[in-house]
Amino acid sequence: MSRGVVLMSGGIDSPVAADMILSRGHELVAVHMDNRPFTDDTPLEKVRDHLDVLQRRHGHRLPLYVLPHGSTQITLMRNTTRHVGCILCRRFMWRSAEMVAQREGATFLVTGEALGQVASQTLSNMRSATASVRLPIVRPLIGFDKREIEARAQAIGTYGISTRPGLCCQAVPDRPATRSNLVQILQEEGKIDVDQILEDVIRKAVVL
Amino acid sequence: MKYSQVRLCSGKGAFEAIPSRRARVDLPAIRDLLQATGREVVDARVMLIIRGQPEITIAADGRLVFKTQDAGEAQRAFQGILALLEGFRERPGRDSSGF
User: Fold this and answer.
1) Domain range for residue A53?
2) In this predicted complex, what is the ipTM?
3) How many helices (H) and strands (E) does chain A have?
4) Chain B: closest CA distance from residue A144 (Å)
5) In chain B, what residues touch A171 (CB-CB under 8 Å)?
6) Yes or no, beta carbons of B13 and A82 under 8 Å apart
7) Which of 3.40.50.720, 3.30.310.10, 3.40.50.2300, 3.90.190.20 would CATH assign to domain B3-85?
8) Is-contact A165 A37, C-beta < 8 A?
9) Which of A41, A46, A75, A170 is the best substitution to test chain B (most B C-beta atoms within 10 A)?
10) Confidence of residue A158 (pLDDT cuts 50, 70, 90)
11) Measured between CB atoms, which of B44, B49, B69 is closest to A165?
Protein backbone atom coordinates (compact mmCIF):
# COMPACT_ATOMS: atom_id res chain seq x y z
CA MET A 1 0.00 0.00 0.00
CA SER A 2 1.32 3.44 -0.89
CA ARG A 3 0.19 7.01 -0.44
CA GLY A 4 -0.87 9.44 -3.12
CA VAL A 5 -2.25 12.95 -3.53
CA VAL A 6 -5.48 13.43 -5.48
CA LEU A 7 -6.55 16.73 -7.01
CA MET A 8 -10.25 17.24 -6.23
CA SER A 9 -12.19 19.94 -8.08
CA GLY A 10 -15.77 19.33 -7.00
CA GLY A 11 -16.61 18.01 -10.46
CA ILE A 12 -17.79 14.57 -11.54
CA ASP A 13 -14.46 12.96 -12.37
CA SER A 14 -12.09 13.44 -9.47
CA PRO A 15 -14.13 11.63 -6.77
CA VAL A 16 -14.52 8.67 -9.12
CA ALA A 17 -10.76 8.58 -9.71
CA ALA A 18 -10.15 8.81 -5.96
CA ASP A 19 -12.62 6.02 -5.26
CA MET A 20 -10.88 3.72 -7.75
CA ILE A 21 -7.49 4.25 -6.14
CA LEU A 22 -8.87 3.87 -2.60
CA SER A 23 -10.57 0.65 -3.71
CA ARG A 24 -7.11 -0.74 -4.54
CA GLY A 25 -6.11 -0.20 -0.94
CA HIS A 26 -3.98 2.90 -1.34
CA GLU A 27 -4.10 5.93 0.93
CA LEU A 28 -4.90 9.34 -0.46
CA VAL A 29 -4.53 12.95 0.60
CA ALA A 30 -6.90 15.37 -1.15
CA VAL A 31 -5.88 18.74 -2.57
CA HIS A 32 -8.39 21.37 -3.66
CA MET A 33 -7.20 24.43 -5.55
CA ASP A 34 -9.42 27.24 -4.32
CA ASN A 35 -10.17 29.31 -7.39
CA ARG A 36 -12.10 32.14 -5.78
CA PRO A 37 -12.77 34.87 -6.96
CA PHE A 38 -12.96 33.13 -10.35
CA THR A 39 -15.57 30.79 -8.98
CA ASP A 40 -17.77 30.77 -5.89
CA ASP A 41 -17.93 28.75 -2.66
CA THR A 42 -19.62 25.75 -4.25
CA PRO A 43 -16.57 23.78 -5.50
CA LEU A 44 -15.11 23.57 -1.98
CA GLU A 45 -18.50 22.63 -0.53
CA LYS A 46 -18.79 19.86 -3.12
CA VAL A 47 -15.30 18.55 -2.38
CA ARG A 48 -16.10 18.32 1.32
CA ASP A 49 -19.30 16.44 0.52
CA HIS A 50 -17.39 14.13 -1.84
CA LEU A 51 -14.98 13.34 0.98
CA ASP A 52 -17.95 12.48 3.23
CA VAL A 53 -19.08 9.94 0.63
CA LEU A 54 -15.58 8.48 0.27
CA GLN A 55 -15.30 8.25 4.05
CA ARG A 56 -18.53 6.24 4.22
CA ARG A 57 -17.32 3.93 1.45
CA HIS A 58 -13.77 3.39 2.67
CA GLY A 59 -13.97 3.91 6.40
CA HIS A 60 -11.60 6.81 6.87
CA ARG A 61 -11.49 10.48 6.03
CA LEU A 62 -8.98 11.86 3.57
CA PRO A 63 -7.03 14.88 4.83
CA LEU A 64 -7.92 17.90 2.67
CA TYR A 65 -5.48 20.63 1.74
CA VAL A 66 -7.19 23.77 0.44
CA LEU A 67 -4.66 25.82 -1.51
CA PRO A 68 -5.34 29.36 -2.75
CA HIS A 69 -5.29 29.56 -6.53
CA GLY A 70 -7.17 32.77 -7.36
CA SER A 71 -4.16 35.02 -6.83
CA THR A 72 -2.12 32.75 -9.12
CA GLN A 73 -4.80 33.12 -11.80
CA ILE A 74 -4.64 36.89 -11.48
CA THR A 75 -0.86 36.82 -11.93
CA LEU A 76 -1.24 34.60 -15.00
CA MET A 77 -3.90 36.86 -16.53
CA ARG A 78 -1.85 39.97 -15.98
CA ASN A 79 1.43 38.63 -17.30
CA THR A 80 0.99 35.76 -19.75
CA THR A 81 -0.66 35.01 -23.06
CA ARG A 82 -4.30 34.43 -22.44
CA HIS A 83 -5.09 31.34 -24.48
CA VAL A 84 -2.48 29.15 -22.78
CA GLY A 85 -3.87 30.10 -19.39
CA CYS A 86 -5.42 26.69 -18.75
CA ILE A 87 -2.08 24.92 -19.27
CA LEU A 88 -0.19 27.34 -17.03
CA CYS A 89 -2.94 26.97 -14.43
CA ARG A 90 -2.63 23.18 -14.55
CA ARG A 91 1.14 23.39 -14.12
CA PHE A 92 0.61 25.29 -10.88
CA MET A 93 -1.93 22.75 -9.71
CA TRP A 94 0.50 19.91 -10.33
CA ARG A 95 3.37 21.68 -8.64
CA SER A 96 1.20 22.48 -5.64
CA ALA A 97 0.05 18.86 -5.39
CA GLU A 98 3.64 17.69 -5.57
CA MET A 99 4.62 20.00 -2.73
CA VAL A 100 1.81 18.56 -0.62
CA ALA A 101 3.01 15.07 -1.57
CA GLN A 102 6.49 15.88 -0.31
CA ARG A 103 5.05 17.11 2.96
CA GLU A 104 2.78 14.06 3.32
CA GLY A 105 5.27 11.42 2.21
CA ALA A 106 3.17 10.58 -0.84
CA THR A 107 4.76 8.96 -3.86
CA PHE A 108 2.24 9.53 -6.66
CA LEU A 109 -0.37 12.01 -7.88
CA VAL A 110 -3.92 11.20 -8.99
CA THR A 111 -6.28 13.10 -11.27
CA GLY A 112 -9.67 12.51 -12.85
CA GLU A 113 -8.50 13.55 -16.31
CA ALA A 114 -9.95 11.74 -19.30
CA LEU A 115 -8.67 12.24 -22.82
CA GLY A 116 -10.38 14.93 -24.84
CA GLN A 117 -13.01 15.99 -22.31
CA VAL A 118 -11.99 19.63 -22.11
CA ALA A 119 -9.38 21.86 -23.69
CA SER A 120 -6.72 21.10 -21.11
CA GLN A 121 -7.09 17.35 -21.60
CA THR A 122 -5.47 16.78 -24.97
CA LEU A 123 -2.29 14.72 -25.01
CA SER A 124 -0.04 17.66 -25.89
CA ASN A 125 -1.59 19.82 -23.17
CA MET A 126 -1.29 17.05 -20.60
CA ARG A 127 2.37 16.68 -21.49
CA SER A 128 2.98 20.43 -21.22
CA ALA A 129 1.18 20.56 -17.88
CA THR A 130 2.72 17.54 -16.24
CA ALA A 131 6.27 18.32 -17.37
CA SER A 132 6.26 20.61 -14.34
CA VAL A 133 6.43 17.72 -11.84
CA ARG A 134 8.53 14.60 -11.23
CA LEU A 135 6.20 12.29 -9.35
CA PRO A 136 4.29 9.70 -11.39
CA ILE A 137 0.73 10.68 -12.25
CA VAL A 138 -2.07 8.12 -12.10
CA ARG A 139 -5.12 8.76 -14.29
CA PRO A 140 -7.63 5.98 -13.63
CA LEU A 141 -10.22 7.50 -16.01
CA ILE A 142 -7.98 8.32 -18.94
CA GLY A 143 -9.76 6.14 -21.50
CA PHE A 144 -13.29 6.46 -20.15
CA ASP A 145 -15.97 8.47 -21.90
CA LYS A 146 -18.19 10.85 -19.99
CA ARG A 147 -21.12 8.44 -19.74
CA GLU A 148 -18.96 5.75 -18.18
CA ILE A 149 -17.63 8.21 -15.62
CA GLU A 150 -21.11 9.49 -14.83
CA ALA A 151 -22.37 5.94 -14.35
CA ARG A 152 -19.57 5.24 -11.87
CA ALA A 153 -20.24 8.53 -10.09
CA GLN A 154 -23.89 7.59 -9.73
CA ALA A 155 -22.95 4.14 -8.48
CA ILE A 156 -20.71 5.48 -5.71
CA GLY A 157 -23.05 8.34 -4.79
CA THR A 158 -21.07 11.41 -5.82
CA TYR A 159 -22.92 12.37 -9.03
CA GLY A 160 -25.69 14.33 -7.32
CA ILE A 161 -23.15 16.39 -5.38
CA SER A 162 -21.05 17.16 -8.46
CA THR A 163 -24.01 18.33 -10.52
CA ARG A 164 -25.43 20.76 -7.96
CA PRO A 165 -25.54 24.35 -9.28
CA GLY A 166 -22.20 26.11 -9.22
CA LEU A 167 -20.26 28.79 -11.03
CA CYS A 168 -17.93 27.58 -13.77
CA CYS A 169 -14.32 28.81 -13.76
CA GLN A 170 -14.39 32.34 -15.16
CA ALA A 171 -10.68 32.35 -15.79
CA VAL A 172 -11.03 30.00 -18.77
CA PRO A 173 -10.14 31.99 -21.91
CA ASP A 174 -12.52 32.26 -24.87
CA ARG A 175 -10.22 30.16 -27.04
CA PRO A 176 -8.07 27.91 -24.88
CA ALA A 177 -5.14 26.24 -26.65
CA THR A 178 -5.71 22.59 -27.46
CA ARG A 179 -2.24 21.93 -28.92
CA SER A 180 0.59 23.32 -26.89
CA ASN A 181 4.32 23.53 -27.34
CA LEU A 182 6.34 23.05 -24.17
CA VAL A 183 9.04 25.51 -25.26
CA GLN A 184 6.45 28.23 -25.71
CA ILE A 185 4.80 27.34 -22.41
CA LEU A 186 8.14 27.68 -20.64
CA GLN A 187 8.68 31.04 -22.30
CA GLU A 188 5.34 32.23 -20.99
CA GLU A 189 6.09 30.92 -17.54
CA GLY A 190 9.38 32.79 -17.62
CA LYS A 191 7.38 36.01 -17.33
CA ILE A 192 6.35 35.25 -13.74
CA ASP A 193 8.07 34.29 -10.49
CA VAL A 194 7.01 30.66 -10.14
CA ASP A 195 8.90 29.97 -6.90
CA GLN A 196 7.45 33.02 -5.17
CA ILE A 197 3.91 32.07 -6.20
CA LEU A 198 4.34 28.51 -4.93
CA GLU A 199 5.82 29.74 -1.68
CA ASP A 200 2.74 31.91 -1.14
CA VAL A 201 0.38 29.06 -2.04
CA ILE A 202 1.91 26.68 0.48
CA ARG A 203 2.18 29.34 3.18
CA LYS A 204 -1.55 30.07 2.86
CA ALA A 205 -2.64 26.44 2.67
CA VAL A 206 -5.42 25.36 5.01
CA VAL A 207 -5.66 21.73 6.10
CA LEU A 208 -9.17 20.52 6.94
CA MET B 1 -23.81 48.59 -25.09
CA LYS B 2 -26.89 46.41 -25.46
CA TYR B 3 -27.61 43.15 -23.68
CA SER B 4 -30.31 40.71 -24.68
CA GLN B 5 -31.13 39.23 -21.28
CA VAL B 6 -29.82 38.21 -17.86
CA ARG B 7 -29.87 34.42 -17.73
CA LEU B 8 -28.59 31.52 -15.65
CA CYS B 9 -25.04 30.51 -16.59
CA SER B 10 -24.29 26.96 -17.73
CA GLY B 11 -23.30 25.81 -14.24
CA LYS B 12 -26.60 27.24 -12.90
CA GLY B 13 -24.72 28.82 -10.02
CA ALA B 14 -24.77 32.42 -11.27
CA PHE B 15 -26.45 34.77 -13.74
CA GLU B 16 -24.78 36.21 -16.80
CA ALA B 17 -25.46 38.92 -19.34
CA ILE B 18 -23.92 38.74 -22.80
CA PRO B 19 -23.63 41.82 -25.08
CA SER B 20 -25.73 41.65 -28.23
CA ARG B 21 -22.62 42.25 -30.34
CA ARG B 22 -18.87 41.93 -29.77
CA ALA B 23 -17.38 44.78 -27.82
CA ARG B 24 -14.33 45.83 -25.84
CA VAL B 25 -14.93 47.70 -22.65
CA ASP B 26 -12.47 50.11 -21.09
CA LEU B 27 -11.69 48.09 -17.98
CA PRO B 28 -9.03 50.41 -16.50
CA ALA B 29 -11.40 53.38 -16.69
CA ILE B 30 -14.22 51.40 -15.09
CA ARG B 31 -11.86 50.14 -12.40
CA ASP B 32 -10.74 53.68 -11.59
CA LEU B 33 -14.30 54.92 -11.37
CA LEU B 34 -15.42 52.06 -9.15
CA GLN B 35 -12.45 52.47 -6.85
CA ALA B 36 -13.10 56.21 -6.65
CA THR B 37 -16.60 55.43 -5.40
CA GLY B 38 -15.20 53.16 -2.70
CA ARG B 39 -15.91 49.80 -4.35
CA GLU B 40 -13.40 47.01 -3.87
CA VAL B 41 -12.23 45.85 -7.29
CA VAL B 42 -9.92 42.97 -8.23
CA ASP B 43 -8.17 43.84 -11.48
CA ALA B 44 -7.12 40.73 -13.41
CA ARG B 45 -6.34 42.84 -16.51
CA VAL B 46 -8.72 40.90 -18.77
CA MET B 47 -11.56 41.15 -16.28
CA LEU B 48 -12.62 43.07 -13.21
CA ILE B 49 -14.19 41.47 -10.17
CA ILE B 50 -16.28 43.82 -8.08
CA ARG B 51 -16.60 42.66 -4.49
CA GLY B 52 -19.95 42.88 -2.79
CA GLN B 53 -23.33 41.22 -2.83
CA PRO B 54 -23.58 40.00 -5.44
CA GLU B 55 -19.99 39.81 -6.62
CA ILE B 56 -19.87 40.98 -10.25
CA THR B 57 -17.38 40.12 -12.97
CA ILE B 58 -16.91 42.41 -15.97
CA ALA B 59 -14.97 40.76 -18.78
CA ALA B 60 -13.11 42.71 -21.44
CA ASP B 61 -15.65 41.61 -24.06
CA GLY B 62 -18.50 43.06 -22.01
CA ARG B 63 -19.76 39.81 -20.53
CA LEU B 64 -21.13 40.24 -17.03
CA VAL B 65 -21.45 37.55 -14.36
CA PHE B 66 -23.42 38.00 -11.15
CA LYS B 67 -22.52 35.51 -8.43
CA THR B 68 -25.93 34.86 -7.01
CA GLN B 69 -28.69 32.35 -7.55
CA ASP B 70 -31.33 35.03 -6.87
CA ALA B 71 -32.70 36.25 -10.19
CA GLY B 72 -34.04 39.49 -8.69
CA GLU B 73 -30.72 40.33 -7.10
CA ALA B 74 -28.93 39.65 -10.39
CA GLN B 75 -31.37 41.86 -12.30
CA ARG B 76 -30.94 44.73 -9.85
CA ALA B 77 -27.16 44.44 -10.01
CA PHE B 78 -27.35 44.35 -13.80
CA GLN B 79 -29.30 47.59 -13.94
CA GLY B 80 -26.76 49.21 -11.66
CA ILE B 81 -23.71 48.14 -13.64
CA LEU B 82 -25.37 48.87 -16.98
CA ALA B 83 -25.67 52.54 -16.06
CA LEU B 84 -21.95 52.55 -15.38
CA LEU B 85 -21.02 50.79 -18.63
CA GLU B 86 -23.19 53.07 -20.74
CA GLY B 87 -21.13 55.96 -19.52
CA PHE B 88 -18.12 54.61 -21.37
CA ARG B 89 -17.69 54.62 -25.09
CA GLU B 90 -17.28 51.17 -26.62
CA ARG B 91 -14.26 50.25 -28.64
CA PRO B 92 -14.69 48.07 -31.72
CA GLY B 93 -14.45 44.31 -31.08
CA ARG B 94 -11.29 42.52 -32.11
CA ASP B 95 -9.99 38.98 -32.15
CA SER B 96 -7.58 37.88 -29.45
CA SER B 97 -3.97 37.62 -30.58
CA GLY B 98 -2.49 34.29 -31.61
CA PHE B 99 0.24 32.47 -29.78
Assistant:
1) 3-207
2) 0.74
3) 9, 6
4) 23
5) 44
6) no
7) 3.30.310.10
8) no
9) A170
10) very high
11) B69
C-alpha span between A28 and A3 (Å, rounded):
6
**pTM of the predicted model as reported, rounded to 2 decimal places:** 0.87
- CB-nearest to B13 from A74, A165, A173 is A165
Q: Please give the full DSSP string across B29-89, using - where no structure is assigned.
A: HHHHHHHHTT--EEE-SSEEEE-SSSEEEEETTS-EEEE-S-HHHHHHHHHHHHHHHTTSP
Chain B residues lying within 8 Å of A38, measured CB to CB: 49
Angle at alpha carbon of residue B64, lines to B58 and B66, rounded to 5°:
105
The domain spanning residue A12 has which CATH number?
A: 3.40.50.620
A·B CB contacts under 8 A: 55
Q: Checking DSSP bridges between strand A3-7 and strand A108-110, what pairing results, if any?
A: parallel
Q: How confident is the model at residue A171 (pLDDT cuts 50, 70, 90)?
A: confident
Q: Which residues in B lie closer than 8 A to residue A77 (C-beta atoms)?
A: 44-47
Q: What is the pLDDT of residues A110-143, one digit of tens each?
A: 999 998 777 667 888 888 888 999 999 999 999 9
Per the structure, the count of domains in chain A is: 1
Chain A, residues 61-80, CB within 8 A of chain B, namely 73-74, 77-78
Report yes or no: A48 and B18 within 8 Å, Cβ to Cβ: no
